[in-house]
Amino acid sequence: MVEEQIISKMLDNNDVHSVLKYNVNKDDFKRLDDVFEYIVDYRKQYGACPNVETVVSEFDDFEYQEAVHEPFKGLSARLKKQSAKRQAFEMLQMEAKTKYKELDGDEFVLWLGERTKQIERQTSTEFSAGTNFAINGQERKERYEEAKETRTHRYIPLPYNTLNEKMTGMELGDYVLLMAYTNRGKSWIATDMGRKAWRSGFGVLHYSPELSKSQQESRIETIDGKFVNSDLRRGQLENEEEYYAYLEQFELSEEEQTPYIVKTMEDLPHGLTLEAIEADLEMNPNISLAIIDGFNLMTHKGGGSNRDAMSNTSRKIRQLFARYGVTVLLVHQTPTSAEKENKEDDEEGARLVKPPTVDQYSETIAVVQDAATVLTFDQHDGIGKLLVAKCREPAVGEVVDLHCDFNRGYIGEPDLTARF
């Protein structure tokens, strides 16, 4: 009945847009998909819906329903619910049986989860009609007042005062891109940002698929506790008792500590996927910052080429983290060719530190386009520079000078790190 009702209302109101905006498509119809498609195509071609008599004469199985008063939103919701139930039944009766025979147990479970989520997305009844800016002044006032009171809870501070002053920090739900050349310390910078967020009371989820768990954890300890990284990894600390005392603060229960969850190669047997990330976000609602250290190490899907697949991943990253209100810090490598182009020596022949520019991305431009903030980094012989290549605040082009002694855990602006 709902199929006849929604099509009849489209014809009466000469309105296709009010249905399409709720993501209704011909696959949502079991019987009248050809009727719906005919009306949509007719509207595109002639600028108006066909009259009722034309449609009734064209399709014998369509029964016109006069004076349908239910709004399009309600009709669309009912249609989507029917569609979800039908698609789920068809998937279980046909697709699942075939896949069960073809795939191993873990592969089948993964396929089943992905297929179910696909149906959920296609038949979602969570609609947004947008906001009428012309009449929502009171709503905007309340949002402004809330921002005044909760500013410190909406922005994640960065480890560098200059950036906090110029950019306010990283806003919850934002997409932040950190780019650097190979082996210049971008993972150390990302870890420094994660440590600062965590010590400021923001939960962190840190994906480091290139490192082992012990390697990543020792980096956090080096930056947080200033323990020499090379000695820490070899079990040869000179200040061993100080290290043991430092570890005592991590014996509290989960309820008493802000989380800093580390996931490395041992935790990602099937690679780092968007599905795995979303599952982690669902399981850990107290996370505010997610670090993905290595965009090229993710498992990319969709598109006809690797570049297209990466672009697809980037777009979904932006949507995923905005939906959960979690900031994502994505670490990406700048190509070697860009480093060669930027290479410049001073009068004594020493290499000048020069961060890459915003257009010197690797593989796909989508990461630059999608990110709200782009930071680029370069470092040589302990001298580092962090460039604000893109951001909403008036800080584009700002360069932060850093002294970097990664092995000892010191990364900071010169006035704060003069001791080394």
How would you describe the overall organization of this protein?
It is a single chain. With 420 residues, the chain is α/β, with parallel strands linked by helices. The protein has 2 domains: 2-122; 143-416, P-loop containing nucleotide triphosphate hydrolases (Rossmann fold), CATH 3.40.50. 46% of the residues lie in helices and 15% in strands. It contains 16 helices and 11 strands. The strands form 2 sheets. A 9-stranded mixed sheet has the order 5-4-6-7-3-8-9-10-11. Strands 1-2 form a two-stranded antiparallel ribbon. Helix 1 crosses helix 5, helix 5 packs antiparallel against helix 6 and helix 9 packs across helix 10 (213-225). It starts with a helix and ends in an 8-residue tail after the last strand.
**Termini separation:** 77 Å
Low-confidence stretches: none
Number of helices: 16
The largest sheet is: 9 strands, mixed
User: What integer value in Å does the Rg equal?
Assistant: 27 Å
| Count of distinct structural domains | 2
Taking all residues together, what is the mean pLDDT? Answer: 87
- Beta percentage is 5-15%
Instruction: State the CATH class of the largest domain.
Output: Alpha Beta
Strand order of the largest sheet: 5-4-6-7-3-8-9-10-11
Helix content: 40-55%
